[in-house]
Amino acid sequence: MVIDVRWLLIALAVVILVVVLVVRGCSSPEPDVSASAVTSSSASQEAPAPPEPEVDWEEVSAAVYSLLDDDYAEALLQAAQTDADARWIACHTGDYTEDGSIVQYKLLKLAALEPQARPFVRNWPELYSQDKGEPCDSSWSGRVPHLYQWDPRWGYTLYCSTTFALTGCCPTSFAMVYQALTGAADQSPYDMGVLASSWGYMDEMNGTDVGFFFAGADEFGFSCWQISTDSYALTSTLASGNLVICNVGPGDFTTGGHFIVLAGLDGNGDLVVNDPFSVERSNRSWDVDTVLSQTKALYAFSW
């Protein structure tokens, strides 16, 4: 029997086609190599982020209340509900004991009362103590700058046996006066602390001696003199364009001793205060008699 070659070829092609279709139907589909598929695949292969440890807030609260006065503890714990730095601080109060319980208390209190200082306090356990401070980066001709002793540029350095953030009020106040009178930013609070120490005016246990004001004024070419702690002497000195550093005792500004800058008088005759420890206290005006009732001494400065 003669087989038509054409029909034989057609039949063979049909058989091959059927085989191919069967094999493809039984095989797994080719992987999706689109961008979305790659992203999804990569994400599925990454290790899941470890969950944050659960916080026992009863335990945290008990620890905070055991270290701080009730009002400060309440302020810190309330801030911890919305502020990540405050939350970390409240959960790690034991990390602030390097220089003893008094320093621990003051740092936690600072975090409770000064929102802008919380990043500094948060990083204190890792960054204290640094060997040297950083310079200021701007000049302040014609006005008194707001400089804070807990600024991270110098607050982690060592001064008077502990962190400059807690002990550097005198050199920080003098740096504000220097920068306002000269318009130069070449002397930072840290630099003033170095001078006070090298000149013998820094006491490891008692802070900075006020003799530093007179020595510093002589060094930089401006005048310093002590004035009476009465309303007329203070207001007339400020009204003449002079600056005043005020040494205050226990009261609104401190429980011990502290230096603040009296930068002038506002339109109501109240004091403009630059407190080197507090943004909150620096952002309000102060009644003259209220400040004088807490004042131990006043030092005036002029160019």
Protein described:
It is a single chain. The chain is α+β, with helices and mostly antiparallel strands. The protein has 14 helices and 10 strands. The chain has helices at residues 5-26, 35-45, 57-67, 70-79, 84-91, 101-113, 118-127, 164-167, 169-182, 189-198, 211-220, 231-239, 279-282, 288-292, and strands at residues 158-159, 162-163, 202-203, 207-208, 223-227, 243-248, 258-265, 271-274, 285-286, 295-302. The strands form 3 sheets. Strands 5-10-6-7-8-9 form a 6-stranded antiparallel beta sheet. A two-stranded antiparallel ribbon has the order 1-2. It has a two-stranded antiparallel ribbon with strand order 3-4. β1 (158-159) and β2 form a beta hairpin.
Shape: globular
Structural class: alpha+beta
Fraction of residues in helix: 40-55%
Radius of gyration equals 34 Å
Series of H and E elements? HHHHHHHEEHHHEEHEHEEEHEHE
Largest sheet: 6 strands, antiparallel
Which features would summarize this protein structure in a list?
single chain, 6-stranded antiparallel beta sheet, 14 helices, alpha+beta, two-stranded antiparallel ribbon, globular, 303 residues, 10 strands
What are the SSEs and their pairings?
Layout: H1 5-26, H2 35-45, H3 57-67, H4 70-79, H5 84-91, H6 101-113, H7 118-127, E1 158-159, E2 162-163, H8 164-167, H9 169-182, H10 189-198, E3 202-203, E4 207-208, H11 211-220, E5 223-227, H12 231-239, E6 243-248, E7 258-265, E8 271-274, H13 279-282, E9 285-286, H14 288-292, E10 295-302
Antiparallel strand pairs: 1-2, 3-4, 5-10, 6-7, 6-10, 7-8, 8-9
